Amino acid sequence: MKLELILGLVMGLIFYEGNFMTAISAVQVSSLPLWNGNAPGEPAIQGEEMDMTKPTDALVGGQKVIRLGNVVKPELTFYPAKNSDGTTVVIFPGGGYYILAMDLEGTEVAQWLNSIGINAVLVKYRVPARKGQERYLAPLQDAQRAMRIVRSKATEWEINPNRIGVIGFSAGAHLCAVLSAQHTNQVYEPKDDIDKLNCRPDFQILIYPAYLTDKNKNDEISPEVVVSNNTPSTFLVQTQDDSIRVENSIYYYLALKRAGVKAELHVFPSGGHGYGLRKGKRVAETWPELVKSWINQL
Description:
Radius of gyration: 18 Å
Number of domains: 1
Number of strands: 15
Largest sheet: 8 strands, mixed
CATH class: Alpha Beta
Structural class: alpha/beta
Order of helices and strands: HEEEEEEEEHEHHEHEEEEHEH
Distance between the termini: 38 Å
Strand content: 15-25%
């Protein structure tokens, strides 16, 4: 599916709430490529980006999910909020580093953030994982570049460069944690003056995160997400019956606590994985309010 069909939801974007369908008023969005030319390490000849959802794929909240695959031209889209105080959240959808759940964990999240007065930036990062690389390397390059571009646009977009956080879902949450841990590690050759800017998130929101611990090593924290006293303030939510294992959040939270990082953890008894903001499960109806309160207290 072409990008225009996915992110070109500027006028009359449809958002589901309970059993009702509400048209969200249009906002002026801005889309930018992350890289001039090909992304680092990408070949000149590339395949076609497309929605890989199959008719047999499970619905979430009674709706289909856009599963965007073969992303080779990463970009970001800025969704400004009305009456914003400048707080901005950069969104990283999940999908196991194989696809991106672009509506469930992307555009719908951007619209929700706007509805509570927070600017949103949706990042379409490269998937699937590149052969011969760590699965998060190309996405991390895109994430670092995206954060720097957002800070470079602070004046133009009227955002506070000191209140730019990240939110990620599943593998996207892992990517947020990698970005927070490795913000001083330059993982690509600098391209321009934008790459001189800081890419550290000011806070991070990890929703049903994956890959944060190694279950074969007594849930030791994964080396790429090592925690320090410089890790940003963190919000975590997961359920006991999550197929990804709730230990990801619990042990990561304990590491944050030991490092003296301000963190908030919510564990729900049920809800599974991959629910986003869609109604039908209590956890999906609860975590957005908890996040809103947490951001307001930062």
